[in-house]
Design goal:
mainly alpha, Growth Hormone, Chain: A, single chain, globular, disordered N terminus
Length: 467
């Protein structure tokens, strides 16, 4: 059969996902990031400077609780793939988990009147519960993209919309949280808790918008029966999926190391705790949104998703070298690096999740089984592993070099902060780019997969299952 480069829409009857539905899907990641950005960027300094835990205790707690958290991901993927509900496999979870996640999120940022040991136990329990409830809502949310449309190009668009929503949530948190905390009682007066109440209420409304505004269209093959062992055996043989798991882990590690140290960098190296930090985060988020808008253009100009991911990752690494040479007085230079880096890094997560979705199609095309929830749970697992390792690396470095909260830091500590926002994440980003070379779904193969999967649904049993 000659290669056909026409639009895959001619091979199926599923309609294109409309603008309203794309916005509804994007709202779900705004909701998720209202929690996630608060946790990833502000929880570490909340625990050390407001809650009163030592850096070493937080490092161990992050490692223990996040290890359990990423173990949950494949379990949740299996559960969602086997969910039977009139409203779909994935959408119902968005509604079911809204209240538990809101309660746990507020409790996480509550400082209890307990002894130091009691506080540590409280932190373990609340952080574990938050991780479990977030998994139960975010795995189905991510997998939903894989069943809203069967077309890779449309998933790239849908993934871009998802990250418009994500970076909008990022913008909300980075532009308001420090202000909320300062005006609602400060670090020691419950400011974090009151801010989390606002975010949880807004996130709940947005999750409901996603639930009511989206549809599930792609179904597993009609003859497919539930077989978790078989699905797992196929999954670990799906080479593009394995490649993206490693890419996700390493990519998030470099992002997490950098994000974990930003507040420390501004508080102790630059000498600012609210104004410059807030503007740094806001401008960075706006730049990320601009980068997301360029995702399809980057993909087209750079020769596909894999090439775009590699080139953009290396570009971010190169630009981030500037942080190493910047002094505390070079504010304009530091902000310029943040904006340019955001434009390059904005498309990375939309590309990652679009590539994950393509691996679900690849597994169905090659092996005849579809398990979208399990595939996407692997993507979440990789990112949670990254968010386990990255912050642990950051807090371990702080602890090793003798970080003490709310005091003037030593020259050695200030130099470590500069390394953690520049050379350390740069080196890890280069590794992520190299790992991406192993992803094997190029544009030609992707079009072939879409065409043959669509033809199989018409009942043509003569199609070849090989590559």
């Amino acid at each position: 059969m000659p290669e056909n480069t026409q639009s895959p829409r001619q091979y199926g009857s599923e309609r294109v996902v409309g603008l309203r539905e794309r916005i509804a899907y994007a709202a779900g990641d705004t909701a998720s990031v209202l929690y996630f950005k608060t946790f990833s960027s502000f929880l570490l300094i909340f625990y050390t400077d407001a809650f009163g835990l030592s850096a070493a205790a937080v490092a161990l707690m992050f490692f223990v609780t996040r290890t359990w958290d990423w173990i949950n991901d494949p379990l949740m993927g299996v559960i969602t793939d086997r969910t039977k509900n009139p409203n779909g496999k994935f959408r119902p979870w968005l509604r079911w988990m809204i209240i538990p996640l809101a309660i746990a999120g507020i409790a996480l940022f509550t400082v209890p009147d307990l002894s130091d040991g009691g506080k540590l136990v409280y932190a373990y329990v609340t952080y574990t519960l938050v991780g479990m409830f977030y998994t139960a809502i975010n795995i189905p949310y991510g997998a939903l993209m894989g069943v809203m449309t069967p077309y890779s190009e449309e998933r790239t668009i849908l993934s871009s919309f998802r990250f418009y929503g994500a970076y909008l949530g990022n913008l909300i948190v980075t532009s308001t949280l420090l202000i909320f905390v300062a005006n609602f009682g400060g670090e020691q007066g419950g400011g974090h808790q009151k801010a989390m109440m606002i975010y949880a209420a807004l996130a709940s409304v947005l999750f409901l918008f996603t639930y009511y505004g989206t549809r599930e269209r792609v179904q597993p093959p009609a003859s497919q029966t539930s077989n978790t062992r078989e699905d797992l055996k196929i999954l670990i043989r799906t080479r593009p999926w394995l490649s993206m798991i490693f890419v996700g882990i390493v990519t998030i590690i470099w992002i997490a190391v950098r994000d974990s140290v930003v507040l420390y960098y501004f508080k102790y190296y630059i000498g600012d705790t609210v104004v410059l930090t807030t503007w740094f985060n806001v401008l960075g988020t706006v730049a990320l949104l601009g980068g997301v808008a360029l995702t399809s253009w980057y993909t087209r100009v750079l020769g596909g998703k894999r090439n775009a991911f590699i080139i953009l990752t290396l570009s971010v690494a190169f630009v981030s070298l500037g942080y190493y040479f910047a002094g505390p007085e070079d504010i304009a230079f530091i902000f310029t690096i943040q904006v340019i880096g955001g434009i390059f890094s904005g498309p990375l997560m939309p590309l990652f999740w679009a590539m994950i979705a393509d691996t679900a199609d690849y597994a169905e095309w090659k092996y005849g089984r579809r398990f979208t929830g399990l595939v996407f749970s692997g993507g979440n697992l990789s990112q949670k592993l990254g968010w386990t390792i990255g912050p642990v690396v950051a807090i371990s470095l702080l602890s090793f070099y003798g970080y003490e909260a709310n005091v003037e830091q030593t020259p050695e500590m200030l130099y470590v902060l500069k390394l953690m926002i520049s050379l350390i994440p740069i080196g890890i980003a280069v590794v992520a780019a190299l790992v991406t070379l192993t992803y094997g779904i190029d544009r030609k193969l992707r079009l072939k997969i879409e065409r043959e999967l669509a033809l199989r649904k018409t009942g043509d049993a003569s199609l070849d299952m090989s590559e």
